[in-house]
Design goal:
alpha+beta; Rossmann fold; four-stranded antiparallel β-sheet; 11 helices; 36% strand
Length: 622
């Protein structure tokens, strides 16, 4: 591992530092009966599955043994077989699905910055095919099962290369003036549809096509400041379905490969995702986001009418069709069940669970179903949120803003929340302005406004909690990771009412300008989508940086950060801690040498959760 340095040249090493009250265990406080931190970290997450072309086998990623390895299993159930042995852990929210060749003989997957291929019929060790570059990802097979498209970063742009399963020297599939990703070959292999981001308009995505033989480009969409992405070919190659925000929601649109006949298919007034054409081309499987619950539905490919197959209070994702159209496989999780793989028979509606991730000791625990509530912010904007009420409140409460900000707290599995709820904490997860799932206007309500309106949304979440039964207004904290950690810093720095008794900042930011300069390219562009470029918007970055109000912090803060983080660099945590130290504030600070943006090691999770529990037990409980 390379050494990480502060701007002054001093190395950053794993450390524990405190200023103020030391973190020691309260001996009279015990975990709730039947609960423990080792128990809640015992779930091995299954995700990013892909159905084989013959419909007989599922390949998927399984986070276990400190790795994110590739496995396969029969679609009718059975014991999973391991295909890779050393795939480094990857955060499930940034990982990608393994890709089957059309003949079903090969699987391609990203592993340690390389695209690797493994034989599916007679498994052997994966073989790298992208040694000609670094940072290759997102393999996609051409219909001939010989060639592959891979994504690389070159000249400060994401570009598409064409190679083969033997790792032959690649050629440029397309050269564009911006970023290109999500390649999707047409059924006959003549064209490739992909998503293009022009670097001159970061609030725009387009669906483009390239003719493989000639390199000729064609724009299917092209509207300034509108996102269109995720093109998917119909089985006959005559239509491309894609997602567009042109109506103010993520709705499904259709167009022909020649760019003609572009039209809006759905008018649901909800965000749609996970498009998958049926084998006969008559229907499109999808998921529909309603208030943070993702339902599984079938769209009529002509009329856009939807039939819901499953409308549970949870998350359905990644539907895949069997080749005969008889069944779908999908992933599902909710507040009471971790993610697992399922199979749905379309004629009978019968659902079969294929994997079983929940340990019996955890499955037997009583969990709390969240309520969906809304509360007014400072300007009257209604903020949607998930509220968990404990059976026996202990008087303390936690406001938990999600990361992003372009994301959403949803109806999925959150076992850490359930652990604290079992201890008696009330838990509120606000979807502050800027969150997805509530329409484009709400999603863009924090553009050029980081740390201002969204901070008020979180502060008013504390006000809402203080009015709830079983909550003591003097015993409310804020805890978040990434942008949620930034919200923690903002709320502790910018609240003259001091509504929070303490805060937990997990790999969050405090100075958007210095972080912009030190994070990876994707995150620099991500910041510029919301705030513009600092050369033209220096004041916006200044306003969005709560480090300038560190003197106003009056309550203790716990800071947790990984030293391999390229999203919010570890220097950001060092800068915040240095400011707290100079200002004489009370804090605890722990870094982890082997962790990036998201704590993946079980040992790290146990350590971080233990520190969080001790911190909150001291500052929130009598």
């Amino acid at each position: 591992m390379s050494t990480i340095f502060n701007p002054d040249g001093t190395p950053i090493t794993e450390k524990y530092e405190r200023q103020g009250w030391p973190a020691i265990t309260r001996p009279e406080l015990k975990p709730p009966a039947g609960w423990s931190l080792p128990l809640i970290t015992a779930v091995n997450r299954i995700h990013h599955h892909r159905l084989s072309p013959d419909g007989q086998t599922i390949a998927f990623v399984w986070d276990r043994e400190g790795l994110s390895d590739l496995y396969r299993m029969p679609t009718r159930g059975g014991w999973p077989e391991r295909l890779t042995m050393n795939r480094a852990p990857v955060s499930y929210w940034t990982d990608e699905s393994p890709q089957w060749s059309l003949d079903g003989q090969w699987l391609a997957v990203s592993l340690e910055g390389q695209v690797q291929v493994v034989a599916a019929a007679s498994p052997s060790l994966p073989r790298p095919i992208s040694s000609f570059t670094r940072g290759a990802s997102s393999p996609v097979w051409m219909p001939d099962s010989q060639r592959l498209i891979i994504t690389i970063e070159r000249d400060e742009k994401s570009q598409l290369l064409l190679t083969d399963r033997d790792g032959s020297w690649p050629g440029h599939l397309v050269t564009t003036p911006g970023d290109a990703w999500d390649a999707q070959p047409s059924p006959d292999g003549r064209f490739v549809c992909f998503t293009h981001r022009p670097l001159t308009d970061l609030n725009r995505l387009d669906v483009w096509l390239v003719e493989v033989a000639t390199g000729q480009l064609r724009e299917l969409t092209g509207t300034p400041k509108v996102n269109n992405w995720g093109g998917r070919w119909s089985p006959d190659g005559q239509t491309i379905a894609f997602i567009s925000q042109q109506s103010g929601w993520n709705e499904v649109w259709l167009g022909r490969p020649d760019g003609e006949g572009v039209r809006q298919l759905t008018h649901l007034g909800h965000d749609v995702a996970d498009l998958a054409w049926s084998p006969d081309g008559g229907r499109i499987a999808c998921t529909v986001n309603e208030e943070g619950a993702y339902h599984l539905g079938l769209l009529d490919a002509q009329t856009g009418d939807i039939t819901f197959l499953r409308r549970e209070f949870g998350l359905h994702s990644r539907p895949h069709w069997s080749p005969d159209g008889a069944f779908l496989t999908f992933e599902y999780e909710d507040w009471s069940r971790p993610p697992d793989l399922y199979r749905l028979e379309l004629d009978s509606g019968r659902v079969t669970q294929l994997t079983f991730s929940n340990p019996p000791a955890l499955a037997s625990r009583p969990l709390v179903k969240p309520e969906i509530i809304r509360y007014p912010s400072y300007d009257g904007l209604e903020i949607p949120a998930f509220l968990y009420r404990p059976t026996t409140p202990n008087g303390a409460a936690i406001v938990h803003p999600h990361g992003g900000p372009s994301a959403q707290y949803d109806a999925g599995w959150d076992i850490l929340a359930q652990y604290f709820i079992a201890k008696g904490y009330t838990w509120l997860a606000p979807n502050y302005r800027g969150s997805t799932g509530y329409g484009l206007a709400f999603e863009r309500a924090n553009y050029h406004d980081w740390g201002v309106g969204d901070t008020q949304d979180c502060l008013h979440g504390a006000t809402y909690l203080s009015q709830q039964p079983g909550v003591d207004r003097e015993r409310i904290t804020i805890y978040g990771g990434s942008y949620g950690g930034y919200m923690t810093v903002c709320c502790l720095s910018r609240d003259p009412e001091y509504r929070f008794a303490c805060g937990i900042n997990k790999y969050g930011d405090s100075n958007t300008l210095s972080s912009w300069a030190q994070c990876n390219r994707d995150l620099r562009l991500y910041s510029e989508i919301f705030l513009g470029h600092p050369a033209q918007n220096r004041t916006t970055y200044q306003i969005s940086s709560p480090i300038h109000q560190v003197d106003q912090v009056q309550k203790p803060v716990l800071i947790l950060h990984g030293l391999l983080d390229t999203v919010v660099p570890p220097q950001a945590a060092e800068e915040w801690v240095e400011a707290l130290r100079r200002a004489g504030k009370t804090f605890e600070y722990k870094t982890y040498a082997g962790e990036g943006h998201g704590f993946l090691s079980r040992a790290t999770q146990l350590d971080a959760y233990s520190r969080m529990e001790r911190f909150l037990d001291w500052y929130l409980l009598p």
